[in-house]
Amino acid sequence: MEVSKFEQENERQPTDVELVEIFGIDKIEDVKEYRAFMNMINISKGVVSIDKPVGENETELMSDFLPDLGSKQPDSDIIDQSIKQDLDRVLSEVLNEREILVLGKIFGIDGNNFATDIDDVAVELGVCRERIRQIKKKALNKIRKSNGANLLKMYL
Q1: For the chain, does the N or the C end have fewer beta carbons within 10 angstroms?
Q2: Where in the chain does DSSP place strands (E)?
Q3: How far apart are CA 5 and CA 140, in angstroms?
Q4: Is the dihedral of CA 44, 47, 53, 55 positive or negative?
Q5: CA distance linking residue 13 with residue 1, whole number of Å
């Protein structure tokens, strides 16, 4: 971790301004939250229960400050829908039906949400594996050279 490296090199804890530079953030409030969190878990003490009361009055639990990684972000459905619409639009403007079908199956964007092996796509379409590879390569090149490539890049 960069903070540990800083502490070793300078033999002191970084100031708030130095933490802003280390983390590349633009709000001093984020640094204060970081300091509060680090004080809560106090790494030098070892393992700390997430059910440990914290704060001035110890009315909150440490688990109250940890993000729920299993839950979806509120805007994730909207972003997913936007990605699908933009991807469908770019594919339909740039590729023919066969190329859309091949990419859809290979990358799992055909509504099934799982990728299909090139060999299975070849069998399904009644062509050899090499032909599917050629179609895939040609389609991806067409997308890269299209104006829609920039639209799709913003989702990366």
Answers
A1: C
A2: 53-54, 60-61
A3: 43
A4: positive
A5: 13
Contacts for 37 with CB less than 8 Å, ≥ 6 apart: 65
Chain segment 62-92, per-residue pLDDT in tens:
777 777 767 777 787 888 889 889 999 999 9
The two three-digit tokens of residue 80, written as one number: 């997913």
Each domain of the chain, given as residue ranges in start order, spans 2-65, 76-153
Cα gap 148→33, rounded to integer Å: 40
3-state helix, strand, coil in the chain (%, to 5): 65, 5, 35
C-alpha gyration radius of the chain: 25
What CATH number labels 76-153? 1.10.10.10
Q: How far is CA 27 from CA 16, 21, 34, 55, in A?
A: 10, 11, 11, 22
Q: pLDDT value at position 47?
A: 63
Residue 49 has pLDDT above 60, yes or no: yes
Does the pLDDT of residue 139 top 70, yes or no? yes
| φ, ψ for residue 103, nearest 5 deg | -65, -40
Contact 53/112 with Cβ under 8 angstroms? no
